[in-house]
Amino acid sequence: MTEYQEMFLSEAAELFSNAYERALAAEEQDFLDAESIAELFRILHTIKGSSGGVEFGHLSRYAHALENLLARLRDNEIGYKSGMASFMVDSLDVMQEILEWETKGAIDERDFNAKLDYMEAQLSQFGTEQGVQAVKEQTGEEGFMLFDEVDIEKLKGETEVKDEPIAMEENDEKRTAEKIQTASIRVDLEKIDLLLNRVGELVITNAMISRIAEGLPNDTLKEELIERLELLERHIRDLQDAVMSVRMVPLEHIYAKLPKIVRNLAKKLGKQVRFKHSGGGVEIDKIVIEGLNDPLMHILRNAVDHGVESVEEREDKGKDASALITVSAAQENGQIIISVSDDGRGIDVEKVVKKAVEKKLIAREQAEKLSDDDKLNLIFLQGLTTVDRISDISGRGVGMDIVRSNVEKLGGIVRLHSTTGRGTRFSIVLPLTLAILDGLNVTIGENRYILPLSAVVESLQPTEEMIRSSSDGSHKILILRDRFIPIIMMHELFNITTKCTKITDGMLIIVRAGEEWAALFVDSFGAQQQVVVKSLEKNFRHVKGIGGAMVQGDGAVELILDPLGIVNKALERQLNSESYYQ
Fold this sequence. Notes:
This protein is of the alpha+beta class. The protein has helices at 3-29, 34-53, 57-74, 84-104, 109-124, 129-139, 149-159, 170-183, 189-214, 219-247, 252-255, 258-269, 286-307, 311-316, 349-358, 364-368, 372-376, 399-409, 490-493, 536-539, 563-576; strands at residues 248-250, 273-278, 283-285, 323-332, 335-342, 413-419, 423-431, 436-444, 447-452, 456-460, 467-469, 476-480, 483-489, 507-513, 516-522, 524-532, 546-551, 557-561. Helix 1 runs antiparallel to helix 4, helix 3 (57-74) runs antiparallel to helix 4 (84-104) and helix 9 (189-214) packs antiparallel against helix 10.
């Protein structure tokens, strides 16, 4: 693909997402209102013109044919008929398939013409067969030319878009290419990572020079040098932020293909499903968004296959025949929270436990001691499935295990909530970026760590009156403003020897890990600093509760704590009474 075709793909992702949102909402009501018609027309007109400009001619031809229907609706030449909205959704699916062909350079002309003929047959039901025939006469079966000058001017006038390219002369194309080239360039992620690493080295070098400056005997010189180094530190921080902004991409890149996946799967299973999403504009690190793709696919497939009931079953329960699946995203406290929910049958907790015991994934005696939430989370065990028949969609017991492991590799956590007969919600909590963070220095024994500042709520030195024991005496609880917060003794969790073992002698740092709160007991904490994260897994191995490493100004390597992993591991340890290291 050319550079401009790749730039078009980025634009097309958002356009398709917006089009699906309009079309699916209209399909639910079986009606296209004037606002939706105008918006869909604008989107298709943009796709048509832009795709034609980058030589994706087949996509442009198909978009133009579909655009004719909306033009006639907009101009009141025909009225809305039942099924038009569903036809729009189906056509968007076909357009995405054609776009995939275009990107691979593998257009099947016979298949494409069959799709265009099928569209003609469908459009004829709405009284637009003449419009489709005109398109075919102008384009030809093999050609890439779009339309004559009269058509271009007419369409420009109708949409009041004077500056969108539709069919460009050679000089116009050169001018447009020059404009695009000056506006943006493509940069490999490896180059951005290399640049970020170099900035990280600047941070370390600046810290080393600062330590030397602190030891200078000349107070005047020391003061002046420290002042300059503080200015340099601010410049380096600005440079880090600028580099990081290049790595951030909107979730729209994932959202664009979700409606098609859900719709095709629902059709295959004979179910009726509405799909809604929000938060596509939220930006997240490109590495994180790539790792998020598979977990979302697994959750959506399970929602349609296991969660959503058949039409008959839903009607018997008094539910809407069409189920609702929703994906939402929001940024909060330096984290991204993605929720996937359905209003289906929910998860049968007792069935999950029964299957786990049958497959010997957990002992019956241990299962009986679990809380309802812990029983529900057994669904994430490898090899567990609640269905009795394996299909090409699910049933092998690996999907949910992949979801949890992939999310944890990204430094995230998965929360599961389900109510029998009402539905299920998965919440994925992830860091916005894996490359840089603001951290708080904490000390446990003689060891120093970095705690991500985004997870910190507050810190305090507790009094005896603020501390309580759990009902079984297994752990301590902090009572803070009517909130009961479990205390995690960090030296015990990490098997660290320390003289500070009494809670009132140390410090409690309140952290928020996803939807959970915890109080981390440490010896003390120090200054805040911005750090460049080095992957521990790439250079050593994955360690639960540790999110990475960083290099201090004195050359010492310090580990970065993972609050989500710490809370999870503490809960597992209480449940299984197992050693942290395994």
